[in-house]
Amino acid sequence: MSETGHAPVADRAGGAAGRRRIRELPDALVSQIAAGEVIDRPAAVVRELVDNALDAGATQVTVRLLAGGVRSIVVEDDGCGVPLEELPLALKRHATSKIASLADLESVMTMGFRGEALAAIASVAQVTISSRTADAAHAWRLDSGGEITPAARGVGTTVEVQELFFSTPARRKFLKTDATELSHGLEAVRRHALARPDVAFTVWHEGRLLAQWRAGAAAQRRAEVLGAEFTAASRVLTVQRGPLLIEGRVGQPEAARSRADQQYLFVNGRFVRDRLLAHAVRSAYEDQLHGSRQPAYALFLSIAPELVDVNVHPTKIEVRFRDGRAVHQALRSAVEDTLAPTRANEAPPAEAPALPAAPAAGPSLPPVSPAPWQRALGLAEPAPVWAAPHGAGGLPAWQALLQPAEEGSPAAAVAVAPPAGEAAAWPLGRAVAQIGGVYILAENAQGLVIVDMHAAHERIVYEKLKRSAAAGAAIPAQPLLVPVSFAATAAEIAVVESEQAALQELGLDMGLLGASTLVLRSAPALLPLADAADLAELARRVLADLAQAERAGSVVQRARDEVLGTLACHAAVRANRRLTLPEMDALLREMEATERADTCNHGRPTWRQLSMKELDGLFLRGR
Ligand code: ADP
Ligand code: MG
Q1: pTM of the model
Q2: From the CB of 314, is ligand 1 less than 6 Å away?
Q3: 583 lines ligand 1 (CB under 6 A)
C-alpha cells in the first residue's frame, strides 16, 4: 500500500500479474453508459419524449417542466397509447414497436426505431408512464419501481421524468443553469413544432404557459415559430428536384445575422445538423453574403427513406445521403434560384440536373455543372473517378496536371509563348524545361527559377483544401465505381470505427468488410484518377494520421490539417511526370496565386532563384 492508501497501480489497472478478469457489465451500467450518448441534458429527454408522442400519432403534445427540466419533465400526448402487456417492455433496452427487421430500418419513417430512449432515460432518472389505448377501459401506470397500477386518463400517454441524473452526480455537474436548460428544452419543442404544423404543442414551465402553437397550416406555424421579422425578410421555396422535395423559407442576404442561430434544416421531419446540407445552403449565398454573416433559413427536405441513412449518430442529428453530392447540388441550386432577383425579361432559372430516381446498383450520378467546392478548388470540370478520360488532350492545362501520367504520350498541347511583356511580369517566370521528371526550369527577369514541382503542387492543393475546409464544408466525396478493399490491422479498423465522422468529413467513406478487411467506397473528389493500390495506400496513411492525432490528443483542427496534408500529397503531381510547357506555366501561375507557396507542407522550399549574377559566378564570368 502506498502512503496515500491507494493500491499500487499494477493491482488496480492490471500489471502482468494483477490483470482483472473480463466480465460482462451489469445491465444497469450498460444502460447508463449508453444513455450518455443520447441523454446529455433535459432537452434531450424532451426531444425523445416528443419524438415518441409524434410516433404514436399524437395531435396534441403538452410539455411541462420544473427547474428547467432538471427536476421534472412531463410529456403528455393523445396518441395511440401503450397496451398494458407492453408497458414493462417500453423501458427495456432495444425494445421497440417501430421496426422488426433490418429491412424495416431501410424504410423507417418514425422518429424512433432503436428502442433505446426510454431505457436510457430510465437509467439516469425516475420514469413513470401512464398510458391508455383506445380499447382499454382505463389507463395503467408503470412507476419507477416497476409496479403497475390502474390510473385515470384519456387515450394517450404521459411520461414523467423526475430528478434527471440523480444517480449520476458526475453528469449532473455538467448541467448549466435552469434558465439555460430551459431554453434548450424549449428549442427542442420549437424544432418539433416547425416540423409538424399539424400537431398542437404547449410548453409550461413552473406552472406558467411558455409557448403555445395550435395545429394549422405550415406557413402559419413557421411564421409563429420563426417570428414576423424573419418571415418578412425571407422568401418561400418549394422545389422538387428528382426524388428530393425542398421547401421552406430562406432569409434574404440583408437579413443575415452575426450568429448561426436561425438555421433550421429538417430531413423527413427530423431536425438535423448536417455539414453537407449547411454547406450547400451557405454556398448558395456565396456571392451575396460576407463571410462572417450567417444566413437565416428553415428548410424542409423530403426524400425516400431508402435514400438516406438516419442511423449514423446516437441522437440521429446527422444523416447520410446515398448520393450526397446530388443532394448538395440540388439544395444549393434551389436556394440560389430562390435568392436570385427575378427580372421581368429573364428566363426562369434552369433546372438543376435531376437526381437519380432510384438507387442503382453502382454509384451513378448525373453530369453536373461545377459544384462550389469544385470551383473553390479550381477544378472547373472534375473528372469523375469512374470515368476519367485518359490522356490530357483537350483538357485545360491545370486539369491536365491532375491526369495520370501516360507512358510516352506526346505533349498534349503546343507551347504557346506568352506575349513578352506579360511573361516578364510573372514573378516565377516562363517555363522553359523540365529536368529529371522532378524540376521545372523557368526564366524570369532575374535569371533562372528552379521549381520542385511535386512540393509546389502539394502546397497549392493543400491550401485549396484548407480553404474549402475552413468554409465549413466536408471535403466532397466521389463514390468509387469499384470500391477498394484492403487488408487492415486491428488498429486501422479501430480508427475506422471510432473516427467515422472525421473520415466522412474528409470525403472518405470507409467501412468494415470482414474481420481484417476494410473497404473504401468513396474518395475525395479532387484526387486524380488513382488505382486501387494508390487508394488503399492513401486510406492507410489517413488512418495513420488519425490514429496519431488520437494518441497525441491533439485538437481536431490539427488532425484535420495533418490529413489534408496527406490528401494534398496524394493529389499532387508525382515525380517523373512529364509536363508540357503550358502545364508547367499553369503550375507556376498557381504558385504565384497561392499563400505560403514558397515552402511545401513539410517546410522544404518549393523553388529557388539563381540570379544572372550567380549564374555568371558559376562560369567565372565577370560582368
Ligand atoms: P423507440 O422510439 O426507438 O421505439 P423508445 O425507448 O423511445 O424507443 O420507446 C420504446 C417503445 O415504447 C416505443 O417503440 C413505443 O412502442 C412505446 N412508446 C414510448 N412512448 C410512447 C408514447 N408516447 N405513446 C405510445 N407508445 C410509446
Ligand atoms: Mg423513441
Answers
A1: 0.57
A2: no
A3: no
